[in-house]
Amino acid sequence: MSPGARLRADLARLYRIPLDEAGLPGALFQADPPAGTALPVPTGEAPVPVGLVEQALERIAATDGEIRAWALVDAEGARAQADGARSQPGNGPLRGVPVGVKDLIDVAGLPTGGGSRHLSGPGRARVPAADAGCVRRLREAGAVVVGKTTTHEYAFGGTTPPTRNPRDTARIPGGSSGGSAAAVAAGHVPLALGSDTGGSVRIPSAYCGTAGYVPSPGRLPGDGVLPLAWSLDRIGLIAATAGDLAGFASALGTIAPAGGVARPDGFAGLRVGVPRGVLDDPIDPAVGAAVERAFAAVRDLGGEIVDVEIPHGWAAVAAGMTIILAECLDYHRERRGPGGDELFGADVRAMLDLADELPAGAYVRAQRVRQVLRGEALSVLSGVDLLAMPTMPCVAPRADAAAGGTIPVGDAEVPLAEAHMRYTVLANLAALPCGTQPLGAGGGGLPIGLQWVAAPGRDDALISAMTTFACHER
Question: What average pLDDT does range 362-380 have in this prediction?
Answer without folding.
Answer: 97
